[in-house]
Write a structure and sequence with these properties.
5 helices; rod-shaped; alpha+beta
């Protein structure tokens, strides 16, 4: 009966590689979760703003419908008194139908935006949700400010960049390990037990061994040194000797081409590291271009907002002028619409 033990003292860095890989995998998992969380947050905010925009369009469509309904009442009164034609009444009726269709489309878009928001937030589609907020009341538009020194850290802190860097670091460690496959592996072992011709076993026996493994390209050389204590009993003779002696031995085993994956692993690790480096460079350049493009689009949209604010101001001024002309009898009420 014998108990054998073996402990690797140095494995060429495999254990360290596995530990580092596990840590990098954990960091990669957290990064992936952060990316998904950021995407969900952006989608939720975008969907919420779309919902607010569609709700504002509903209010605008209702006001437009009320305006044309009031105009229909006035135009019909003028038609009865002979101050408006039948074509004018028909024109207002067509405007009312257009306003109703616009209101229906706005309500459908609002319901679609609400369903999309529920989907992003993981809510049941039948659950009632009350959306609070108003684009015209709760938001203040200010000119966006961009500084050139903000761009570099903004790119470096992107989770996608961190993920690509982790992939590259992991590939680098795997390549370093394959480059060091030629380093000898060292392990020690031993055994402890009892032996005898018959039961009960009375003769103690133990031993120690040292093993060196030398990778030589696609071949392997194993050198083992053994020492131990065994009883002197001669098996099968019935002669019993309680004295024990030391037994020392050594052996060398050279195996030709038993590790044909050695060259393939080195090549694959080099290719993998090259691909990871290329991916990181392309991603950095892509995000840099996206960042500058987003800055340009944001500035363009801000100019459009300023332009539209100007149009609203001009329309408001023209309406005030039209009201005064109507009060002076220079234009008809229909012209106010």
């Amino acid at each position: 009966i014998r108990l054998n033990l073996e402990q690797t003292i140095f494995d060429g860095g495999l254990r360290s590689l596995n530990i580092d890989s596990a840590k990098l995998d954990d960091a990669l998992f957290l990064t992936e979760r952060k990316i998904e969380s950021s995407k969900m947050e952006v989608e939720a905010k975008r969907s919420f703003l779309v919902e607010l925009a569609t709700k504002t369009k509903i209010s605008s469509a209702k006001l437009n419908l009320e305006k044309w309904e009031d105009e229909l009442h006035i135009t019909r009164s003028q038609f009865k008194e002979g101050f408006a034609t039948e074509n004018a009444v028909i024109l207002v009726l067509s405007k009312i139908q257009e306003a109703k269709l616009d209101l229906l489309n706005s309500e459908n878009n609002f319901n679609k935006a609400v369903r999309n928001l529920k989907f992003i937030l993981g809510l049941d589609v039948l659950e009632k949700v009350t959306i609070e907020g108003s684009l015209t009341r709760d938001f203040y538009f200010s000119k966006p400010i961009f500084e050139d020194e903000w761009i570099v850290p903004a790119i470096a802190e992107r989770p996608e960049i961190l993920r690509a860097k982790i992939h590259k670091l992991k590939s680098q460690k795997e390549k370093d390990y394959t480059e060091n496959l030629w380093i000898p592996r060292f392990s020690i072992g031993g055994y402890l037990g009892k032996m005898d011709e018959h039961f009960p076993l009375r003769q103690p026996t133990w031993g120690l061994n040292v093993k060196l493994t030398f990778p030589l390209g696609n071949s392997t050389n194993n050198t083992t040194a053994n020492t131990g204590v065994r009883p002197n009993s001669l098996a099968g003779t019935g002669i019993r000797n309680d004295n024990s002696n030391f037994n020392n031995s050594g052996q060398n085993n050279f195996q030709f081409f038993d590790n044909l994956t050695y060259s393939r692993k080195k090549m694959e690790s080099s290719i993998k590291l090259s691909d990871a480096s290329t991916e990181l460079s392309k991603l950095e350049e892509s995000i840099r271009m996206q960042t500058f493009q987003s800055i340009g689009e944001t500035k363009e949209k801000w100019d459009n907002i300023r332009y539209n604010f100007g149009k609203v101001f001009i329309k408001k001024t023209n309406r005030e002028i039209a009201k005064r002309k109507f009060q002076l009898g220079e234009i008809k009420h229909f012209d106010l619409t």
